[in-house]
């Protein structure tokens, strides 16, 4: 007990706890405020935690703003920051992006790009980007596996400001091909001469080379590539080899001067799909700039197989074990071919395998059968008899060929078609090859046909 002086006892008799506390110089809780004080004490840890998290978020926001400022200034005001120049093809994924610096496949020297910077700089998948990355300072630990892009100097040879105002591929107007890509190179090169006659190729063509195994498909693709390089040097040529043998990749690179983008059969299916998607996006970006681009794909069947393995299962399986959703990405690739009203064109000539004994290959070919506007059919029977090029002249053709031929050439070609229609595969091809050997050019061949073929009205 505490003995209080008399004056204090008298004052305390009528005073509350606050008066007693004031006399004793201590704090005594009032009865009505006890619950409120306990609640405040319980809320104090939570309040301190909120204040701490707010301070951290503000600090992170300031640091992020500083990093963006350093990136916009390009390191000129960055003090000790050292920048290294980089260049490559931009590959945009679902939640991140990379600049592929060593080709079209992922590599250890790729550069990371945030999606925020992709939107801020107006970048698109397939862009050829040149810029700079910040190198780690001396003694600074590398926190990320990839260096981040901090500055963009050019996009497809333009400034970033110019690149933002370019056209968008999906909003351009597709038309039928109206300008022919001449394949004829020399009198002794019979394959491109036959293609010019029976299945002419125009700028913006979507063509299929339908081939059984060992029918000379690869040789025809190589000769088409060489003919395009010789006759159409203004065209940007890209050869995409998917699930191919390594020695054939080396052979193609030694023959073709254009871009050869390859993923050999010893790589996973995801690499095949990545290469094909980035290649077609690169072609679209070039077409947006008004260029004429030719993509030779070998083969559409193997690309569809790769998507069938790599794509997540949808639960709907077609005959042959083909997932229903696996055929959409290859169709998107093949369907990108078009001649554009606003300028530029994208030509895709892809090979499709038939007569392989696989039900899957048969289903894939049937899905793409009516999507092209040019078809070049190869014959296994002609190849077995060593008659090359093993082209089935009656089964090959181009839709709206009257837009590619001159009127005089078209009338003579119709005459030739009527004659070839009465012959079988071998006789028809041998007749064409014999007449080609007698002439030095296709123009001379057509004049010979005009003279020797009776007119049928």
UniProtKB/TrEMBL annotation:
Rho RNA-BD domain: which residues? 83-159
Region of interest: Disordered = 1-84
Q: What EC number(s) does its UniProt record assign?
A: 3.6.4.-
Q: Where is the composition biased (Basic and acidic residues)?
A: 51-79
Class of the enzyme per the UniProt entry, highest EC level:
hydrolase
Looking up InterPro entries in the UniProt record yields: AAA+_ATPase, ATPase_F1/V1/A1_a/bsu_nucl-bd, CSD, NA-bd_OB-fold, P-loop_NTPase, Rho_factor_ATP-bd, Rho_RNA-bd, Term_rho
Cited Pfam families: ATP-synt_ab (PF00006), Rho_RNA_bind (PF07497)
Which UniProt key words apply to this protein? ATP-binding, Helicase, Hydrolase, Nucleotide-binding, RNA-binding, Transcription, Transcription regulation, Transcription termination
**What's a Gene Ontology MF term here?**
hydrolase activity
Biological process (GO) annotations?
Answer: DNA-templated transcription termination
Give the protein family.
Belongs to the Rho family.
Name of the protein: Transcription termination factor Rho
User: What is the species of this protein?
Assistant: Schaalia georgiae F0490
Source species taxonomy: Bacteria, Bacillati, Actinomycetota, Actinomycetes, Actinomycetales
Query: What's the encoding gene here?
Result: rho
